[in-house]
Amino acid sequence: MKMNYREIICLLIFWDLLLNVQHANAQEEILSDSLLIKTDSLRVKKINFNGYPYAFYTPETQLAFGAGGIIVFYTKPSDTILKPSKIGFGGHYSTNNQYKLSVNPALYFNENKLFIRTPISFGVFVDKFWGIGNDTQENGTEQYERETITASFILQSPPILFSASRSGIILEYDKTTITDKKENELLKNDSIVGNKGGELYGIGYDLTWDSRDNIFFPNKGGYQYFKLIIYPEFSDYNFGLLELDVSRYISFKEDHVFAFNLYMSSALGTAPFYKLPALGGQKRMRGYFNGRYRDNFYATLQLEYRQYFWKKFGFVAFGGIGDVSSELITYDFSTVKYSIGGGLRYLFNKKQKINLRMDIAVGRDGNTGIYFGLEEAF
User: Is residue 225 within 8 Å of residue 205, measured between CB atoms?
Assistant: First the structure.
């Protein structure tokens, strides 16, 4: 497998600098938060369940109807430092005949020293592929259909060699079948890697540095995540994916928060088109169809202001820039895309600060999106 090691080295150096700059403040914040938590003798011991039906519209699904929920609990209520665990689940069906079922357990154990996540999903999607690059054009024939099964096992514990909060292993399974290429001439061309789908088995390593005071609605602290995953030769495609996700939260008043996020992703080797870093979606560069632009390297920066303005109701305003390129050193700021928007929030779990969110975003060239879901984008 041919990998661009310059990209690995550059991102690792950048990661190390971020950790060193924020490490001192982080330790002070963690200590302060831990002492406050230890004095809280009113920790809720019961399981907290929130379920809801919903309807939403996104560029990817069009109008969709579904139901979902989140179960919040502590794996050991007597552990006063422990963060709440959660099991999110949901399913929806859309007017363009696609559906998705998913469950995403995220469990904390032993004073947050052990973290396990096992997301599983199955879906049939009406997707779009415009080609590869940052200047692909609309021609009305981008649509195709795929069926995807994904399952991951992520186990994290305190690292031995790094200063992060947790590190661990990743096992991943992904089976994608292109069920109907429709009129997409690009996918009818065998030069597009992955035009028939494929089966992938991945193994990887990740690092997490987390000093957020709340995992659902942070007022202060930071979150950094680094991941390297390799799909070996016994997969249908032999390549790697590198990912860096950095967030910082600053509050000048309780529940008045400035949130910053930097995200970078890089494909190492020859990846199938549907696994290439993709611009757009509900979390980053809102307003663009998820995958509107794809290439081997993707970087985006976003800023968001969050505030509750009346009882359980709040609002956000956000903006971001980002783009894809063939590799890190060819990233071209002259072609960068923008995303701006805002949204409303409803606090339906006050103790854990879990929000129901609705965002509206616009991007370049008339791209728009409306999004509905649980928790913040980052």
Answer: no
